[in-house]
Amino acid sequence: MKKIILFSLLSFAGFTSALHAQETTTPEKYTAHNKGKYYVYWGGNRESFSRSDIHFTGDNYDFTLYNVSAHDKPKGWQADYLNPGRMTIPQTNFRMGYFITDHYNVSLGLDHMKYVMFQDRIVDYTGTYPNQGSYNEIVVNNPNQVNLTTDFLKFEHTDGLNYINTEFCRVDDVSKLFGIRDTDKFQINITEGAGGGILLPKTNATLLGKERHDDFHVSGYGVAAKVGLNLTFFKYFFVQAELKQGYINMPDIRTTKDPADRASQHFTFTQRIIVFGGIFKI
To answer: Which residues of 219-230 are buried (b: 16+ CB within 10 A; e: fewer)?
Structure first.
């Protein structure tokens, strides 16, 4: 009987100790694992573009402009980013993704960039076009150059230079490097990835006095790589800064109402991006 009582007391003590240990064990943090989580973000960007050669063709012309420079068209931070009817007016970035492991995710997104050719710049050219000299484009004493006047050419992808792409990215929590223990309150991550997709620009081109096309058209493809810093607050909300470098090749750009009129170009770009988003499980 003594042995039975002693065994019962020891068993009860072991049970209560295990129960107490279970009660006092710190629960696993929400931010400890990412697998199975979804994320979505929205924000804005600034862009830089390399110079490019632009080739224009039509029924009665075929010419190339060399080393054409361009800039973006920023609007600054404003309410348009939150207005559903005006969200595509600024330069914006939208992305939604899914974590297939704790570190890797796949995503689909839209980089809405704006490309504007600098006007009134003198560039080299080769080829022929009709009514030469009637657009105030002639450069005196240099028959191999033209001035990019608005009468001669206005060339923009301003609604916009739409890069629809998928990305494969890695994310790593580096909070411990900064002494942060409670990552459910604040977490620091670094991310890097690469992707590719199609270009669906809406090109605003006024060429040789012709009426512009001004409609969306699949014009080519792009590839890009990026690095980023992610700051996550209270488990579910984050702000992320990214630097993205990419290449765009558009061999089939619509320029005017005439379906025979086309342009082609390729160039590199750099995006500086800030976005706001959320990460969650369904």
So the answer is: bbbbebebebeb
